[in-house]
Amino acid sequence: MRVLGVDPGLTRCGVGVVEGRPGSPARLVAVGVIRTPADDEIGARLVAIERGLEKWLDETAPDAVAVERVFAQHNVRTVMGTAQSAAVAILCAARRGLPVALHTPSEVKAAVTGSGTADKKQVGTMVTRILRLDAMPKPADAADALALAICHVWRGGMQNRLATAATAAATARAGRSLR
């Protein structure tokens, strides 16, 4: 499975693509950051993020997109920008019919470090080890995007199989009750 991870943000939107499957080593495909100038108008910034994400989707052809779930912060302005950037990522994926998964920061941290309270340095260190990289991806937004993709590869596949099994079980139960 090839997954595009998106760490949403208006100034720096981290993007990273990882390939792998649960129980197997993950492989780096690409990593980077889509940047927009802080003094640009919000509409122009969102269009720049959309164009950047569309280019990443074209060039890397992922099977799924994993986006960090926006959570409440004290700075409402930061939350709004993050949410707007996340919405653009979801829209770009949905337009192509790609499945989108939202993962919480603690879920991602737990997937890559074993602790939902790990700090950014720990996440970056583990991403570097997991993907067998020579150096930690910089800035942290890029490492976070890779962590999202790794989390989805390792956990998303299981979640999808569980959902499929639950649907099949519900269908079978419904079929028995109709007889």
TrEMBL record:
Its EC number is 3.1.21.10. InterPro entries: RNaseH-like_sf, RNaseH_sf, X-over_junc_endoDNase_Mg_BS, X-over_junc_endoDNase_RuvC. The keyword Transit peptide does not apply. Keywords: Cytoplasm, DNA damage, DNA recombination, DNA repair, DNA-binding, Endonuclease, Hydrolase, Magnesium, Metal-binding, Nuclease. One of its GO terms (molecular function) is magnesium ion binding. Pfam families: RuvC. Mg(2+) 1 binds at residues 7, 141. It is found in: Cytoplasm. The RuvA-RuvB-RuvC complex processes Holliday junction (HJ) DNA during genetic recombination and DNA repair. Endonuclease that resolves HJ intermediates. Cleaves cruciform DNA by making single-stranded nicks across the HJ at symmetrical positions within the homologous arms, yielding a 5'-phosphate and a 3'-hydroxyl group; requires a central core of homology in the junction. The consensus cleavage sequence is 5'-(A/T)TT(C/G)-3'. Cleavage occurs on the 3'-side of the TT dinucleotide at the point of strand exchange. It comes from Herbidospora galbida. It catalyses: Endonucleolytic cleavage at a junction such as a reciprocal single-stranded crossover between two homologous DNA duplexes (Holliday junction). This is Crossover junction endodeoxyribonuclease RuvC. The active site is at residues 7, 68, 141. GO terms for cellular component: cytoplasm; Holliday junction resolvase complex. Homodimer which binds Holliday junction (HJ) DNA. The HJ becomes 2-fold symmetrical on binding to RuvC with unstacked arms; it has a different conformation from HJ DNA in complex with RuvA. In the full resolvosome a probable DNA-RuvA(4)-RuvB(12)-RuvC(2) complex forms which resolves the HJ. Binds 2 Mg(2+) ion per subunit. CDD domains: RuvC. The keyword Metal-binding applies. NCBIfam families: ruvC. Belongs to the RuvC family. Signal peptide: none annotated. PROSITE patterns: RUVC. The gene is ruvC. Its main location: cytoplasm. Mg(2+) 2 binds at residue 68. Its cofactor is Mg(2+).
